[in-house]
Amino acid sequence: MPRDIPREIERLTAAFAAILLTLGGFAASAEEADPVARGAYLAAAAGCDQCHTDSKNGGRAYAGGRAFDTPFGTIITPNITPDRETGIGLWRSADFERALRWGNAPDGSHYLPAFPFPFYNRLTHDDLVDLKAFLDSLPAVSRANTPGWPSALSMARARAAITIVAECLTGPWQPETAKDKDWNRGAYLAATVGRCGDCHTPRNWLGASEQGRQLAGTSAGPGGKAVPNITPDLETGIGRWSKDDITALLKDGQTPDFDFVGGAMTEIVKNTTRLTDADRNAIGIYLRSLPAIHSESKADH
Q1: Max CA-CA distance within the chain?
Q2: What is the pLDDT of residue 9?
């Protein structure tokens, strides 16, 4: 493990590993686990620790401070430990749900869509409760939040994007009764904590997703880099991949041609590695079932 990762993350990573061993097949035994353990699993799958820890500068776990360059300017992630003055220690359950589901802060302001609340919008009520239980269990860290540096133009763009995004939010995930349990589990994970569409779905100039091209890849992904088509198109997508190929990538980042993912996907694999085999398998089943969408070019995975 790199030396610049804080000791809190080392301890939490070990805790996540213990939780996964306890959970085994998470989908089957979720009812047997306590809320903190379930919330820890979801937080690990979403990579909350990666975004909300300034690991590069030795920051405390979940205390925020990591800078991200986004279409809306430079965003500094906030402190989400239960510190009552600088974190979320005074947040009620309703505050937490409004923030994650609708992007509304307790003070009435709206988070920029760089925060993936459009994906967390689909989380079930129970999963939101479990996530809060886990975050409330963390050590409180006093660290004042640092403002970002959005430009006037990016803020105008952000306001327009928020309006468009808000119109598309559908609320908690509802299972498709015509599909089996594994498909629904994979679809739920991909749509929520997995946030597959955050990178793999093209966006318009306002930052809103192109609904007709879900997961079809884009030439302008994070950092302006191309992101691959992950629909089962035979020529430009992953149509020639087996379910096992998909689950292998989610486990260790290796593609069927024995290459390894790079760029932003390396961080995602750090999250999907912490999923159970059953959940990675469910995501593979879901992705293999999607309608194939042809892209103009095939991006490297």
Answers
A1: 53
A2: 45
What is the model's pLDDT at position 18?
Answer: 44
Task: Report d(CA 237, CA 162) in Å as an integer.
Answer: 30
This prediction has a pTM of 0.84
Q: How far apart are CA 15 and CA 214, in angstroms?
A: 35
Residue 169: predicted pLDDT: 84
First CA to last CA distance, the chain:
25
On whether both 249 and 109 belong to a single domain, the answer is no
Q: Which domain holds residue 168?
A: 1-174
Per-residue H/E/C for 136-185: HCCCCCCCCCCCCECCHHHHHHHHHHHHHHHHHCCCCCCCCCCCCHHHHH
Report angle CA 172, 108, 118 to the nearest 5 degrees.
30
Q: What is the mean pLDDT of each run of 10 residues along the chain (301 residues)?
A: 42 46 41 85 96 96 93 88 98 97 89 87 97 98 85 58 68 95 98 94 76 87 83 96 96 91 89 97 97 78 52
> Residues 244-257, buried b or exposed e (16+ Cβ, 10 A)?
ebbbbbbeebebee
Structural domain tally of the chain? 2
Q: What is the pLDDT of residue 160?
A: 57
Residue 224's region, left for phi above 0, alpha for psi from -120 to 50, else beta, is: left
CA gap 72, 156 in Å, rounded: 9
Q: Cα–Cα distance between 252 and 102 in angstroms, integer?
A: 33
What whole-number distance in Å separates Cα of residue 111 and Cα of residue 95?
Answer: 13
Last residue of a domain, one of 158, 174, 190: 174
